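Re: duplicated header lines in exported structure tokens

Our pipeline writes sequence and tokens for each protein into one text file. With two proteins the header for the second block appears twice in some exports. Here is an export where it did not happen, for reference. First protein block:
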Amino acid sequence: MVWREILDAVYPKRCPICNEILVPKDRKICSICSEELPVLMEPRCKKCSKPVLAEEQEYCFDCVKKQHHYTRGFACFLYNEKLKKSLSEFKYHAKKEYAEFYVDYMVSNLGDWIYKTKAEVLIPIPLHKNKYKQRGFNQAQLLAEGLSKALSIPVDTKLLVRTMDTKPQKKLDNKERMKNLEKAFSVSTNVKKSEELFPYKRVILVDDIYTTGSTIEACTNVLQKAGCLEVFFVTVCIGNGF
């Protein structure tokens, strides 16, 4: 259609990593960035999915130091400066179209593992209402909805609630991060807090990035206390485990 051609000319589709115009326009990432993406491969931590130095090493440095109560998690990419910029544009500058690229990679790289968890639902990490008002959307919810559409797994955006508008995690050390999130999440008051009445046995938390795991751990603790048996997670990026 003519209007589509005009729109493409005025607002050409751009690479979600380097922001260059995509040619051909049906690509989701430019050829250069596609070759340079830090895709996570084995060996990786058998708990959180961070890269490890050798096949015989089961857990990354972080998972050896501290106990995580989630069952297991996976990510697509190692967090680096290019991904940091891309995710920042996605979250803070409303580049919501980037979600399509992230979801495609998550489905192709993590889809089989997601099915194997036998999780009944995807739960995006919730934003506090103040941050939601500022951004106008929840980036984790966009990712979860994309995964839901591709994998036919429902999304629940009502169960997990962010009750406190916490300080940005990136400005805090590990101990401060956990303390910052101690009372940041809760289960909706509409859910009876018992194992028999909790609506799901297995859930997958969805977020854009995993660094120390403080956010995932805080959500896991709340869900398990309410009656959930197993909590998994998937993210676009993850920090280094060395």
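Second protein block, exported in the same file:
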Amino acid sequence: MNEDFTGAVPTAAVLIDGAGIPGAESICRHGVAWYAARLGGSLLSLLSVVPDRGLPALLAEAISRVTDEHRGTCDVTDPISPSATVAMLRLSDGLVEYLVLGDSVLVLDRADGVPLVVSDPREVIISRSYQPLIEATPAGSDEHRRVLRELRAKRNQPGGFWVAKDDPRAADEAITGRCPIAELTGAVLLSNGASRIVDRFRLADWPGVMAVLASNGPAEIIRRVRQAEARDAVAADDATIAHCTDLAAA
């Protein structure tokens, strides 16, 4: 099951990359895919009807809404309850506003040919420090679960990393910005399974990715990622791309 979500309305796009670990079923009966879809759907609704609030405020509201939906049936505060990373953009008054929370990636294709890559490195940096322990313990073992739980406990904590989960204050930690629509030829939102083409497998740089998207579309990026995963015996990750074009026409 793909635990990512992506969707768009005429002036905005959202990508959600759901996250969970084994054992979360006992914490939340709904699951990661449910959380990602609910969060994404709530964001799209808010983006459509509340155009005058900032993106962090809309994300905080969406987190609160989804948390309230399952607070009575699930342990929403447990470190392994479902969470998600977020990338979103909105067109408003001649500007593109953007937000990234967690390890999703947003790339703005600028007319001068140098893409602006928006990413939040905190989760990657902290996860990398735990990788030797994760790889040294058998998957499914108590020790493996303990290490994963310890890593997840770094979420939404000062000095840790920030994701959408149960605390709407995480939205204030998002990477945000804006730029004139006239400076852009397009934009792309990628889950970290898709951004592997650049940051893990080094199959292309970001200008190269934008060129492939323009000529062959998102399916070609994902095909190349799947080939690299098979070649290197790397477990496949959900890979989702939202490619936004003709921004000035929106």
